[in-house]
Design goal:
Layout: H1 5-19, E1 23-26, E2 32-35, E3 39-43, E4 49-53, E5 57-60, H2 67-85, E6 93-99, E7 105-111
Helix pairs in contact: 1-2
Length: 113
């Protein structure tokens, strides 16, 4: 056994719950945001301005919210969560596959150093 499946699924579910039914916004690149207790004012790199309720948004530390960036970020988050709870020396990497439609997707392998 490489890793207990139940622990992995619980970790993935916990991370995905943070994203479920949320607007995902990138904090990197040329994006600017101001957050207070009730709203987030977000100005994208192409100068579009959005004001959204804080509860409806998840800020992600990537340049842009693309399928590739999201897959990489998810892989890194999963690895970080697993390391907090268990010794994962027997793992060499985590493979993430995300789909943004029926025929379009992305596969990323996050290698462990």
């Amino acid at each position: 056994m490489i890793f207990p499946f139940e622990e992995l699924i619980a970790t993935v579910r916990r991370i995905c719950e943070e994203l479920n039914n949320k607007v995902l916004l990138a904090t990197g690149g040329g994006n600017v945001y101001k957050k207070d207790s009730t709203s987030i004012e977000y100005i994208s790199a192409d100068k579009k301005r959005y004001v959204l309720p804080t509860d409806d948004v998840t800020l992600i530390p990537v340049e842009e919210v693309t399928i590739e960036a999201l897959a990489s970020w998810l892989g890194e988050r999963i690895v970080a969560e697993l390391r907090m709870h268990r010794d994962i020396e027997n793992l060499t990497g985590v493979e993430i596959t995300l789909y943004e439609g029926q025929q379009r997707g992305c596969n990323i392998i996050v290698a462990l150093a």
